[in-house]
Amino acid sequence: MRYTVLLRYQPEEGRRPLDHPTKSDHQVEGDISLLPNLGDHIHLESMGGEDEPSFDGIVAERHFRYRGGDSCEVEIVVGPFHAKAEEVQRLGLRA
């Protein structure tokens, strides 16, 4: 299966993640065991260009959109660490 991985940041005051494609978005073939999981810490540095995002936080959500055949889009939503720490603890995960 081919996976398209999208990293999206959701600000604390935001209702939904920012729709901001980055150079960190990529495709993975086969094994996705190394994808960040809920509660994992993410630090994304700008990968060039003035409008490339840079953020730091924890994985709050993962959305899998199966496109039929052998294609799946994985959106990894990262929220501010301090805003999501209580939610991670509530779920029994480790940040």
Describe the structure.
- This protein is mainly beta.
- The chain has one domain (2-90).
- Helices cover 11% and strands 39% of the residues.
- It is built from one helix and five strands.
- A five-stranded mixed beta sheet has the order 2-1-5-4-3, covered by helices on one side.
- Strand 4 and strand 5 form a beta hairpin.
- The longest helix is centred in the C-terminal third of the chain and has 10 residues, at 81-90.
- It is globular and about 40 Å long.
- The mean pLDDT is 77.
Which features does this protein show?
5-stranded mixed beta sheet
Main sheet, how many strands, which sense, barrel?
5 strands, mixed
Overall structural domain count: 1
* Helix-strand topology string: EEEEEH
Q: How much of the polypeptide forms β-strand, as a percent range?
A: 35-45%
Percent in helix: 10-25%
Structural category: mainly beta
| Mean of all residue-level pLDDT scores | 77
* Low-pLDDT segments: none
What is the strand tally?
Answer: 5
Brief sketch in words of this structure:
With 95 residues, the protein is mainly beta.
